[in-house]
Amino acid sequence: MQDGESLTFPVEAGHIMLFARAVGDPNPIYYDAEYAAGTEVGSIVAPPTFVQASAQWDPGYKLRPTIGEPWFGSGKEPTGVPAPPGGGGGGTGLHAEQHYVYHRPLRPGDVLTATMKPGRTWEKEGRRGGKMTFSESVQEYRDQNGELVVTATGVGVRTSKTVGS
Amino acid sequence: MALRKSELTTGDVHEQVVVDNLTRTQIVQYAGASGDYNPLHSDEVFATQVAGYPSIFAHGMLTMGLTGRMVTDYVGDGRLLRYGGRFRAQVWPGDTLTARAEVTGITEDEGGPVVELQVTTVNQNAEEVFVGSAAARIDP
Question: Which of A32, A35, A49, A153 to mutate to probe the B interface, most B CBs <10 Å?
């Protein structure tokens, strides 16, 4: 999602279950509706970092293969494109920070609209990765009634060398 | 089960192992659930031969999601007001992560009492991989 764009993200019970499994969380609040009905929150809710999965609903998301188009991951060759992003041993983009503010829990049946706002950009000299360029983006998630439910602020970093041990 | 202000003290600690011997399959599960299919996280050939890493590595957001389990196990479901932090080091297949919350303060807002937490996740070498904070609604 680019600055100023928006997406629609339906919150679904099956998606919450898969996401909770992926983050290794066995809490039945994420899959067992009967159990959840007897708890304080009263229904299945989404785990704290679930809005990250709105990427599934981002039509132009670059980190998902587009049907019929070359993908930068490996197939016959180590990469399927001539100039893969993050390739050539350097210049890799990574996630530096993530912050959430919650106004209420997300529940199956919610339909969220996320709007991307640009944030700050700054530079820093890194210990291991050479020059690092940070850029911030702010996603506001509103529900079907237009109420703000989650604000997600992400910071990405682009380094001039590959970071790793 | 929510935390109670009357039973909390600054300096209280809750700690949990959130993954023991992280598998490539779990990283793939996270790719599938989150929708982030960056081959750096699932494609060993790409990660090593094209991008120059020693192996694939976990999404930062998987580390934050694993850590989130510790936070919600401690504060209860639907209680979080804020949660955030910084990715300090990469997480690799085989890593074991321990997530820790320490009470840094108990405050009050218009909705009632709030616990403020410092959140730190370390790997098996005691290296910090995620450092942040959280705040949650607590009972009186």
Answer: A49
Q: Per CATH, which fold does A6-159 belong to?
A: Thiol Ester Dehydrase; Chain A (3.10.129)
Task: Compute the distance between CA of residue A92 and CA of residue A88 in angstroms, rounded to an integer.
Answer: 9
What pTM, to 2 d.p., does this model score? 0.94
CATH topology for B5-137?
Thiol Ester Dehydrase; Chain A (3.10.129)
The residue extents of the domains of chain A are: 6-159
ipTM score over 0.85, yes or no: yes
The pairing of beta strand A148-159 with beta strand A131-142: antiparallel
Side-chain-facing half-sphere of B29: CA atoms under 13 Å: 19
- List, for residues B20-72, the tens digit of each pLDDT value: 999 999 999 999 999 999 999 999 999 999 999 999 999 999 999 999 999 99
Domain boundaries, chain B: 5-137
A33 contacts chain B (CB < 8 A): no
